[in-house]
Amino acid sequence: MRVVILAPPGVxxxxxVGPAEVFWxxxxxxxxxxxxxxxxxxxxxxxxxxxGHLRFLADRTIFDKDEPIHTLLVxxxxxxxxxxxxxxxWLRRRVPTVKRYGSICTGVFLLAAAGLLEGKRVTTHxxxxxxxxxxxxxxxxxxxxxxxxxxKLITAAGVTAGIDLALALVEEDLGREIALAVARYMxxxxxxxxxxxxxxxxxxxxxxxxxxxxxxxxxxxxxLERDLHVDAIAKSVGMSxxxxxxxxxxxxxxxxxxxxxxxxxxxxRRLLEDTDRPLQAIAKTCGFxxxxxxxxxxxxxxxxTPNEYRARFxxxxxxxxxxxxxxxxxxxxxxxANKLAKPAxxx
Length: 347
Prior knowledge:
Blueprint: E1 2-7, H1 13-29, E2 37-42, E3 47-49, E4 55-57, E5 60-61, E6 71-74, H2 85-94, E7 100-104, H3 107-113, E8 121-122, H4 129-135, E9 140-141, E10 147-150, E11 153-156, H5 161-174, H6 176-185, H7 201-205, H8 211-222, H9 230-236, H10 241-252, H11 256-274, H12 279-285, H13 291-301, H14 306-340
Parallel strand pairs: 1-2, 1-6, 2-5, 6-7, 7-11, 8-9
Antiparallel strand pairs: 3-4, 10-11
Helix pairs in contact: 1-5, 1-6, 5-6, 11-13, 11-14
């Protein structure tokens, strides 16, 4: 299968390297390095400058003779301003001929400009979401997803999300076992579900530049187990409920209730990842009240149940346990060897 990564000038280097490593490792795990034919496609120049002062030598350019493509991924440029019309023409010609196509980070802007996202659900890096929605209001954007599959289209948030995208495609091609083996080898341990949030509510809380909204967020995060009401939160920062809700939405793009649910879900995620506590206890600790409410929140924000989410992280915990056991065994071996060793001769 030929995988072509279209790399614009100034490309995010990991948008190329991350997916390429996933596909290469998957092929190696299958014992057939020809399983994936990975090519870097430039928009004109043979040498492509990427982030981190890295340079990539393109296998082909968009001006070369067309060859069959199985999977076409458009990488992102974190600082792009102008879309090359020749790239748009090339995408319009090539996308209808491929089995599947997608984008990483701001690569979604190129697909949108080419008119290839009509009626599709997409995602992009959270920092670019507002700009995308303003430029392409007719396209359904889910700004918080890691990646989204919609038919033959798959779009990813950016940077490491390109690795998640590639792992999802490997699972589709070669099965879950190979995809998990690749994730473990790359020290990812867990293949993240596409609907998982790009960033935690705590990071979202840092995005407000208005002091009293920051105080409200701090109040929410410190009192997740309480029965939080918007009017009480507004009162805690000296605002009317109506004005508080309006300013909060303006600052963050979400309602206070959405933030509360996201914060509780984020707290529950961490407990599911790191502890064996019962689900009902986690639901109560994080302020959901009961397990049914936590399940609804997970279904809405992550797309999997709490049990399914915990299962994905069981691999990581098994590895940690194995590492600890291995370390103890190694220490015992070294201790035994030291006891048997002859005293060193000095002088």
